[in-house]
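haha ok so turns out i had the wrong file open the whole time. this is the CORRECT one, sorry everyone. sequence first:
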Amino acid sequence: MNPNALRHFGRTLPVAPSFQQIRRELGAARRPSLGEGFAEVAEQLRKRGPILPVQIGIPSALAAQMQAQGQTPPPPEEIPALIDTGASITAINVATAQRLGLQATGSIQIGGANGVADQPLFAAMVRIPDPFVEWDPMTLAGSNLTGVPFEILIGRNVLCNMTFSYDGKSGRFSLIL
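then structure:
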């Protein structure tokens, strides 16, 4: 019997090959295993918090418009993001947004530890590879995220659609749709 097959009432139900491939690729790269090096993984989670890679780019409508005008749209980039349950909105470092070619669409007053400040709003395509979920377009608030190991804060406007689990003892966290 195929180890990737499911059994239901004695019948074998195959798992889609694309799902098998994705789970192997994502599981191998992102999930720490118990054993050698595990203490370092747990310590990094404790020090840095739940950081995961996300892909950010210009919205597909803008990319299509650029292509129609004979321009080459900038490709999305994978950048580190921190899951921030204290943030009500997802925010991106302003310098990162400018580097990626995101267009400012307005402004918003954002309150934080340093008080309230006007910040730009950017239109973007946001993709979280594991679990695979994409917003196109999504509005991101600008923020000053210098001197930290991430360029995006994933706020509750995204997290409200997921289950977030943080297990500090094992050095793991997960997002589930």
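DSSP finds five helices and eleven strands in the chain.
again sry for the mixup
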